[in-house]
Write a structure and sequence with these properties.
Elements: H1 3-8, H2 14-26, E1 31-32, E2 35-36, H3 44-54, H4 58-70, H5 78-89, E3 95-100, E4 110-115, H6 124-132
Antiparallel strand pairs: 1-2, 3-4
Length: 137
């Protein structure tokens, strides 16, 4: 009897499955750039800014980078500031072209367009700050 038929027949208990799900859920990060995103944890203003930055808000990424560069309510971290400045200075959105290889001799590979929303230009201030800190990467 293989594992899937054991499950379907009811010979596998629910408890091991729940334990596995609990362990996997513990692997999910609930922070962004070291800032806890859990309700009630840490400074609510900082958490809100981190949530916006995690969602792709370039102004929030820039502001959070400045906070890490200057140590405003967080320990100074130039490495984290550079990561945030890199995100804020990069263009985002637009069409992403993804190649999917052939699945058989009769089905060729193809290129699929993925729409990631409108193109959002990177911020020049973030680029300047990143260059001042030693540039890219």
């Amino acid at each position: 009897m293989n594992d899937s038929s054991a499950f379907r027949s009811g010979k596998v208990g629910v408890l091991p499955l729940l334990a596995a799900a609990l362990l996997l859920s513990a692997c999910v990060s609930n922070t962004y750039m070291g800032i806890p995103l859990t309700e009630g944890a840490g400074d609510p203003t900082l958490r809100s800014l981190a949530e916006s930055a995690a969602a792709g808000d370039k102004q929030a990424q820039l502001a959070l980078g400045i906070i890490y560069e200057e140590g405003l309510g967080v320990p100074i971290s130039i490495a984290t500031a550079k990561k945030l400045y890199r995100l804020a200075s990069s263009d985002s959105g637009g069409t992403l072209w993804v190649y999917t290889p052939a699945v058989s001799k009769n089905v060729p590979g193809r290129v699929i367009p993925i729409d990631r929303g409108p193109i959002i230009q990177g911020l020049s201030e973030a680029r300047s700050r990143l260059d001042r800190l030693g540039g890219r990467p």
